[in-house]
Amino acid sequence: MKNICKSILMIAFLQVSMPGFSQCNAPTNLNTTYSNNVSTFTWDSVPGATEYNLELKFVYDPWGSGEGFTSTTNSFQLTGIYHSAELEWRVSTNCGTSTSANSASYLYTVPCPEPSALFANNITATTATVNWTAAAGYNTTVSNFAVYYRLANTSNAWTSAGMTSATSKTISGLLSSTAYEYRINQSCINSNSSTVIGQFTTAAIPCNVPTNLTVSGATSSQATVAWTIVSGGQSYTVEYKPTTSTTWISSSSVTTNSKLLTGLTAATLYDVRVKATCTNGYVSGYVSGQFTTYTATCMAYGVNGSEFIDQFTLGTINRTSGREVGGYRNTGLSTNLVKGSNSNPATISCGYNPGIVFGERYAVYIDFNNNGSFADNGERVAGPTSFSTGALLNFNISIPNNAPLGNRKMRVIIRRSTSSMAPCATGFQGEVEDYNVTIVSGSNKTSSDISTINEVNEIPVVVFPNPTSGKVNITAPDHFNLSFIEVMSMDGRMMERINAEDKLSNTIDISTHPAGVYIVNVVSEDNIKSSHRVLLTK
Fold first, then answer.
1. Is the CB of residue 98 less than 8 Å from the CB of residue 23?
2. Taking CA atoms, which of 156, 255, 329, 507 is between 20 and 30 Å from 400?
3. Residue 351 pairs with which residues in a beta bridge?
4. What digits encode the pLDDT tens for the residues 414-449?
5. Which of 493, 473, 467, 483 is nearest to 528 (CA)?
6. Three-state SS for 119?
7. Is residue 113 reached through a cis peptide bond, with omega within 30 degrees of 0 on the bond before it?
8. Model pLDDT for residues 332-374, shown as the tens digit of each residue
9. Are residues 450 and 533 in contact, defined by beta-carbon separation less than 8 angstroms?
């Protein structure tokens, strides 16, 4: 208090000079009362008194440093003394020709009054604003209010909602449809007021949405879904579907907070959602999530919180992605590969958390014998190769001459370099993506199946470099009589057509197109076409 203000009052008062003492009697029976910010000082009347001199100071200050007041009656009132100020006061008598000695001094502490008129408003299911009226004389410089709350009609410990110099406070994090009590007291300079208590009841939520949805124990055909129990929840309904489907499958309701889903399709990304039915008959909204089932014959998945496959291209496959749910994805994408072909350019890239780069390795497997293991001799068709920059890595896949024709599963793996590259491992740092390939014979070659048609037509047209970052050089023999060059997308769209300016040598620039695989058709004047698959990198 001494550092806040040397004045006892919020208004200035005159210092009273003290005349010399005489035989005039000093006042006795000094008393104080307080009401509504008014302090009343009284004493017994002294015969012959013409006026009285009241001196008031803080208890820790010497006499003469406080305030002086004059009264012609045996009482005096002061308004606006700081709440809880600790004071000392005394009175002397002026008898006209002489002044008495000072009376005995008395201590007086101004009360710290409690607030009043409590009420709550803006009540929701989880919040409420409590309000009150400050006592007269409340001063925000030296006082504020403490707010606490707890469940009503309990002996629970009070929870602090904090301090405020305002006359309202919003309490949050409450339970719905629940009675609370709250208490308010004024915190003054040297003491606190007594507390006042009010009550409110939060609004009802018909039925809370379940939270903390998790999926565990996923295999090729089942998974367990779990969630946090809802207050008042009577039963729960779990619905699920493949992400590609528009129809939800509803399981039978359960009274526990978990459900085993069975009969799932292998290697499939599923959506799942859960809703609650409460005892009051209301039904909640849904909490939603996703999970992945794994391949039926050879499970493989990684922990992809730090690294994951963010791009893979091969033939007509050109996929860019983020982290796969569960560290595995059966993409469903496919391409044709020619039996005995030695040049099938592919690319792979690893994504990382920002600022994190680990050493990684990649490998590609094709299950040629369709036994689901990917671990038989000759089924690893690329890698393991290390890389650490996160840049797009170019590599080549060769298909053996004895590869059986037909549809096969292809597995692409990125794993941290400290891990082995077993194709059927689980729980490693990295990610797995499965694709489909169709092994075709050379007699079925098309522009989307092979690198160059001129291998069949025996036309010595050369397209290089491949892969390319944009510039492609094309050379043809004199008898080819080059007419124009077409750049086609893998789905057959014409990207551009360039007339040949030089019958012997031409250079085209395809850098304006997105990265991916393109068909470059080199056409002669007599409509002989030589087609080449070119990989454009960025």
1. yes
2. 329
3. 308
4. 888 765 688 888 888 888 898 988 888 764 333 333
5. 483
6. strand
7. no
8. 788 898 888 887 888 888 888 776 777 778 889 998 887 778 8
9. yes
Task: Phi first, then psi: give them for residue 443, nearest 5 degrees.
Answer: -70, -15
pLDDT at 197: 95
The residue assigned the tokens 């003491």 is 191
The DSSP output letter for 492 is: S
Q: Could you give the CA distance from residue 466 to residue 473 in angstroms, rounded to a whole number?
A: 10
Task: Please give the Cα distance from 141 to 453 (Å, whole number).
Answer: 89
**3-class DSSP state for residue 326?**
helix
pLDDT 10s digits, 173-183: 998 889 999 99
Q: Are strands 233-242 and 196-201 parallel, antiparallel or unpaired?
A: unpaired
- The CA angle 413-416-420, to the nearest 5 degrees, is 70
pLDDT for the residue numbered 460: 61
* Cβ partners under 8 Å of residue 136, min gap 6: 36, 37, 113
Side chain identity at residue 478, one-letter code: D
3-class SS of residue 457: helix
- Structure tokens, 71: 């009264």
Lowest mean pLDDT among 121-125, 315-319, 499-503: 499-503
Q: How far is CA 148 from CA 140, 180, 441, 461, in A?
A: 19, 10, 80, 86
Extract the tokens encoding 18.
């003290």
| Residue 54 CB-density burial (10 A; 0-12 exposed, 13-18 middle, 19+ buried) | buried
- The angle formed by the CA atoms of residues 243, 248 and 249, to the nearest 5 degrees, is 115
In the chain, the amino acid numbered 282 is Y
Residue scoring higher pLDDT (298 or 95) = 95
The amino acid at residue 41 is F
The Cα angle at residue 149 between residues 146 and 152, in degrees rounded to 5: 145
Q: Find how far residue 154's CA is from the centre of its chain.
A: 35
Q: Which segments of 106-183 does DSSP mark as H helices, in order?
A: none
Contacts of 372 (CB under 8 A, 6+ apart): 295, 296, 297, 298, 409
What residue type is assigned to position 202 of the chain? T
Q: Please report, for residues 75, 130, 156, the alpha-carbon distance to residue 197 in angstroms, rounded to integers and kept in the order given.
A: 36, 11, 15
Domains and CATH numbers, the chain: 31-109 (2.60.40.10), 116-201 (2.60.40.10), 212-292 (2.60.40.10), 301-443 (2.60.40.10), 450-536 (2.60.40.3080)
Quick one: tokens of 162? Answer: 């904090």
Q: Side chain identity at 506, as an amino acid letter?
A: N
